[in-house]
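Lab manual, section 2.4: Encoding a predicted structure.

Procedure: take the sequence of the chain (405 residues), apply the prediction step described in section 2.3, and record the output as structure tokens. A sample record is shown.
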Amino acid sequence: MNKMNLGSKFMFATGIENSYPTIQLPDGSIKRVDEMEKCCHYKNWEKDFELTKEQGIEFLRYGPPYYKTHTGPGTYDWDFTDATFNRLKELDITPIVDLLHFGVPDWMGNFQNPEFPELFAEYAGAFAERFPDLQLYTPINEIFITALFSAQYGWWNERLTSDHAFVTALKHLCKANVMAMHAILKVRPDAIFIQSESSEYFHPMRPEVQKQANFLNRKRFLALDLTYGYPISVQMYEYMLQNGMTSGEYYWFEQNQVKARCIMGNDYYATNEHLVLPNGTTEGSGDVFGYYVITHQYYNRYRLPIMHTETNMKMPDSVNWLYRQWANLHRLKQDGVPIVGFTWYSLTHQVDWDTALREDNGRIHEVGLYDLERNITPVGKAYKRLIEQWKDVLAAETFGMVYTH
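Recorded output:
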């Protein structure tokens, strides 16, 4: 076993939404959606950090806007990053560094670019060298969703709609993720990587779509399978080979994985479960199984410590959703699954997530601990109480150590 010292704290966390994919507007023009801008974080970042502290939250999923920071090969603009991360250090808030959240700089193109993994790893190494005291990283957020929305659904970035484009984006994202981990470990050998990955499940509506549901329930694991060097099924191996991955590219992941330094971050929303319809398409099913059942499936596959890295629900249902997610997570921990943290995402309300950022409507998505005027919401009050009630109890249960197999 390998030992990872996380201190004695259970990681109660939130995040500051920093998505920045590019989308196509109805007139055909391309626009980048910068949620930090839409949520007024650039104007309010000092206040946002103070609110995090007031909540009693000691861990923050946070990263610089990658598209603004990596200005060219080997060149960086660290001004905003220096200011924000130095302030987090002053406030004694531990960042879980979110280096890439759904988009890349304009000069890099998109996730079809074969040079992307090396360029991103270079950036990750440069960030670690600039902030060598930081230990917790999410190199690339939600790889599966990034590839799916960008290269199979045609919503973001390259806006492609094929299996070949999906596999290309997926292999590049996973390789970039692993290479970034290696680059960070060269600077910080005790770094810990918390993958924030969407936990999915597909329910067959009728017996004739069981085969399609089985395929999708294998496909949902691909991002973590590659990242962790997990042996995939023959069906998934053939699927990837048929869509542009070589056997050499596949075995690279087995030879380069750093699973021993990883915590599996599971994101769960009401949109994460799907119904497979008789025509083979899917639609949302709501939370049929819930976080407990689906996370147990992921844990049984990878046997890694787990952090619940994202969840939310729109007002007025957010407080009830918080307690339901907490009950699921706490039951998992009682049943012996090594749970190390919980996250309500995000600190403030978001904008345009009702259309998965596909439309630029400016509609407020009321899911935050605070609204966009920085007033606390009912779920903000509830989460603060939950932290106060549970932090010392769970810290004692954690014993300060997480073990990986």
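Check your result against the sample. The CA atoms of residues 292 and 327 lie 9 Å apart.
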